[in-house]
Predict the structure.
Amino acid sequence: LTKLDKNATILGPYEMQPKYFRRQYWWGFALKIADKNPLSTIKQINQYIPGNFKIDPNPISLLSP
C-alpha cells in the first residue's frame, strides 16, 4: 500500500486485547500519513482495504477492539 504514496507508513500488525473476542481473532494496524492534505492519500489507500475491516479514524487505544 505504501508504494502508492510515499507519504504513508503502515505500522503493525498489533495483536488486540483480548485477542479473541466475539468468536473472532482481532488484529490492528496504524496508518501514519505525513501530508498537509491527507484526504487524497486516504482515498487511494481505502480502495485496497477489504469491506469487512473496521476503520476508526480517532481510536482511544490501538490495542482494544
About this structure: The chain is about 10% helix and 35% strand. The chain has a mean pLDDT of 80.
